[in-house]
């Protein structure tokens, strides 16, 4: 029993060190260090004032039609998220509807997570999104390329990504580093065509009837978050999102 407990404590210590090392590694890069120097002191005051404490988790919700990116935070001991900041897209690419194939210029729609922190991006700083996922591959079909390299980034240009100004990406990037450093392995990025109220669904499905089935599979995830202020349990089953 002592050996089991000791092994657990060592494993826990290694996990904590790995998390702390993430921030230490990131801040060695000049742009990240500058972002921290410029943004973190002020951001931290608002984080503390919001009751999120020193360790918090993060969810990003993005809405293509509204051109808004929301950052939601919660203290790691809390049960629900609250809205921390809203940022404007500074450019747009394509139209509403999911990304289907490489080169179509579309910004994806669906349930993703951050899988890359790029401190040396060609677009100042960037957060990679794990597009394509299983639902995207199923939509694109066999022997066709779904594309990739989807990021939330600076530099205010885009072909399928979510662009913010350099000043805004500094804030989102720093918040992401802090969340990951506090132990959040997967930071959700939920990309919606619009705020998926019943009224908007009716309006936009009338304009884009081909997207009706797909958007109806996204709406339960949106509604669950609106109701519970927490990420729903979403799985990818046979090319579709299933919200539990």
TrEMBL record:
Record's signal peptide: 1-18
Catalytic machinery residues: 153 (proton donor/acceptor), 161 (nucleophile)
Segments forming domain L,D-TPase catalytic: 58-192
Swiss-Prot/TrEMBL keywords: Cell shape, Cell wall biogenesis/degradation, Peptidoglycan synthesis, Signal, Transferase
Pathway annotation: Cell wall biogenesis; peptidoglycan biosynthesis
One Pfam assignment: YkuD
Protein family according to the UniProt entry: Belongs to the YkuD family.
Protein name (database record): L,D-transpeptidase family protein
Species per Swiss-Prot/TrEMBL record: Pedobacter riviphilus
